[in-house]
Amino acid sequence: MATIDMARLSQTVINEVASLFKTEMQKYAKELEADTREFIQSSAQDLQRWTDLLEKGEITQKDFEGLVKGRVDLMKVTALTKKGIAKIKLDKIKNEIFLIIINLLIKL
Amino acid sequence: MKKHECLKSDISRNTYVVLRNMYVLILCLALAGCAPVAFDSHSFTQTKALKADALKLMDQATDSFSLHAAEVARLNDQLESLHNYEKTRCKNKITVQQWDILLDPDGNLLGGFLVEWKDSIILKKAVVTEKGKLIGGAFDQIIELESHKRKSPVIFE
Lengths: 108, 157
Fold this sequence. Notes:
Order of helices and strands of chain B: HHHHHH
Strand content of chain A: under 5%
Shape of chain B: rod-shaped
Number of helices of chain A: 2
Structural class of chain B: mainly alpha
Number of strands of chain B: 0
Radius of gyration of chain B: 27 Å
Distance between the termini of chain B: 49 Å
Oligomer: heterodimer
Helix content of chain B: over 70%
Largest sheet of chain A: none
Helix content of chain A: over 70%
Number of strands of chain A: 0
Largest interface: A-B, 40 and 45 residues
Distance between the termini of chain A: 13 Å
């Protein structure tokens, strides 16, 4: 009876998956780094602007606190976006892995 | 004898094919479970539309709340409706969490803003402008996540 060469199959899958994972994660790491840098810069600008508004009397201390808390809430929403995108990318990679395995099995 | 061996070989080959197909079937079923969350054009367009409506209404918060109470109630209904719709979608927990934060009446984004407007009657222009940037940003994050979701159909889902 013909048997599935598991060792060869495993090695082929590992090679293809490793290559796919490396490319995808490198791309994502760069995007994440750029987004994080941009977010920190914009947060610092917001804090500076609100401090100026507070000094000019255009907003109260309570307003200032509300804005800072709002910024924290926005950070939470942003973090969820990053988490969601990372999960989508991971699911896509898992999908690709299964497709690689299925294609290899069909070829056997 | 030769015929017997040939028959045996055919049976082995058939067993192999059946086993291989079973592997493929199991993997296909597992693949369905790994399919990334699907893009929803209703969610996407509604979120964009509600962002525009919310920011437009927020601009009126320097007026007395009573002048816009009906519009606020209508907006709240639409927001709640979309929030509930998001809860019914498959693999959509993260987007629901984003809406929870945005609409929390005790929070500091849209939900909190509308409560603050109602309680304070009139809000300062600077507060309205700055809160508008934060709330617009939160809507943008929800839109960005939606736009990353899978647009092409996946086999076996």
